[in-house]
Amino acid sequence: MEIPELTPERPFEEDAPLAEAPPDATTAGPAAPPAEPAESAVQRLEDQLAELQERHLRLAAEFDNFRKRVGRERIELTDRAQAAFVIRLLDVLDDLDRLAAMEPDGPDDPVRQGVLLVDKKLRKELEAAGLERIDPVGETFNPALHEAVSILPPPTPELDHLVSATFQVGYRFKGALVRPARVQVYSAAGHT
Asked: Do 86 and 131 touch, CB atoms closer than 8 A?
């Protein structure tokens, strides 16, 4: 095919066929989908609504459970951090116990009185935070709370399995054992 030459007098080819126009959508086109009956459309929309409402309730419940779990985990983390701090203070409490048990130098020893006041204040604050002292003398031996480091034969049979002395007090923090009490126990089984 030859390409006609364009000149200023003839800017375009007059004999060239025109591009076909797209068919008019109103006159001839693909057929529209058939209309859905009203009652089935209503039923379909009600089913979709019920499904979306159920999904919304499930998501709301999952979020509520997530929020509660995060709250519990935050409290547990705080309690563990506080327990770790209290564990580091146990040696200080033992030293204060030894100082309090010492004989005073005089009737009004001001240093000893000051140590006793500091000891009392510190223990009060720690107890308010959840620290519980375990000194089980006279109680039944409990291996979950006590560590037997020595046994003695009981002077009477009713003292069998009772704690006779505490070598080192134990502690619980908010119900969790942080250090068992080291004790001496009366036991007939160990001495036969």
From this structure: yes
Please, are residues 119 and 137 in contact by the beta-carbon 8 Å criterion? no
Residue 170, judged by CB atoms within 10 A of its CB (0-12, 13-18, 19+), counts as: buried
Supply the CATH classification number for the domain 130-192: 2.30.22.10
Please state whether beta strands 181-186 and 163-168 pair in parallel, antiparallel, or not at all (unpaired).
antiparallel
The whole-chain average pLDDT of the chain stands at 84
- Report how far residue 138's alpha carbon sits from residue 120's, in angstroms, rounded to the nearest whole number: 24
pLDDT at residue 110 in the model? 82
Asked if residues 180 and 91 have their Cβ atoms less than 8 Å apart, the reply is no
Whole-angstrom CA distances from 91 to 61, 79, 96, 111, 127 are: 47, 20, 9, 20, 16
Name which of 3-12, 20-29, 60-69 the model is least confident about.
Answer: 20-29
CB contact at 8 A, 154 and 185: no
Average pLDDT over residues 156-169: 92
Domain spans of the chain, in order of start:
41-129, 130-192
Who wins on pLDDT, 55 or 103? 55
Tell me the CA distances in angstroms from 130 to 83, 90, 104, one per residue in order.
Answer: 9, 14, 31
